[in-house]
């Protein structure tokens, strides 16, 4: 089976807290913790699509991607798999990142998607379980970035590491204020911590780029929305919010890669041992 014989291309972004799936211009998300058997409804959706499928997979949670693939095997879904890291080594022509070691595929794909929106230099801010700030230089190379803990992760660490602070699950995050309760103080402090970290890194990296124009900023991830309005007021350059930036990166990559290049990096699902 060759790559141009597929009826349906499916783009899969496995994050730490949820999977995002895009097919036929539709996007669905499934949080893992809300349903221990989350892979079953996803597999049912994919099994209903015209086959054969091409699954293009980016994952920072390999155990989660294997869960879905096992469910697809159980449904006897006819498909081939393409693992995005294999298409994007450090010297790839779409977004080179020589000298940057251990960078996640989600960060690279986010920068690829951001290039479809703006000319470099670009800074992406992915607000997931971890927050990553990623830098694309003026000449179109990924030169690295920074990683730190999100609001939910900070709240979890404060509860787990102290005797008196409560656990706050999936909180609504208000802007910083003077907290009158412990809960309000925790939410105010963690919001300010993340906002301050994002802003400090954007400001620092933009000066380090030494570009004649400020870098464009692209915010993504489920935790990014509370910070958008404040960052828009502060930033003097272009800024966009794209909640599914990694999926956009996969889609953009598939538009640019040839069938011959793609064919060298696909494997049949039925041949995998999971």
Would you mind describing this structure in some detail?
The protein is an alpha/beta fold. It has 2 domains: 3-86 and 258-271, 2-Layer Sandwich (Nucleotidyltransferase, domain 5), CATH 3.30.420; 118-241, Nucleotidyltransferase, domain 5 (2-Layer Sandwich), CATH 3.30.420.40. It has 9 helices and 11 strands. It has helices spanning 39-47, 62-74, 84-87, 105-115, 151-161, 182-209, 225-234, 245-256, 259-263; strands at 8-14, 18-23, 26-31, 53-59, 79-83, 122-127, 130-136, 142-149, 216-220, 239-241, 266-268. It has a 6-stranded mixed beta sheet with strand order 3-2-1-4-5-11, sandwiched between helices. Strands 8-7-6-9-10 form a 5-stranded mixed beta sheet, with helices on both faces. The chain is globular, with a radius of gyration of 20 Å. The chain starts with 7 loop residues before the first strand and ends in a 6-residue tail after the last strand. The model has no long low-confidence stretch (mean pLDDT 93).
Q: Assign the CATH class of the largest domain.
A: Alpha Beta
Percentage of residues in helical conformation: 25-40%
Task: Bin the strand percentage.
Answer: 15-25%
- Principal-axis shape equals globular
Largest sheet: 6 strands, mixed
Query: What is the terminal separation in angstroms?
Result: 22 Å
Q: Work out the helix count.
A: 9
Using the 3D structure, state the CATH architecture of the largest domain.
2-Layer Sandwich
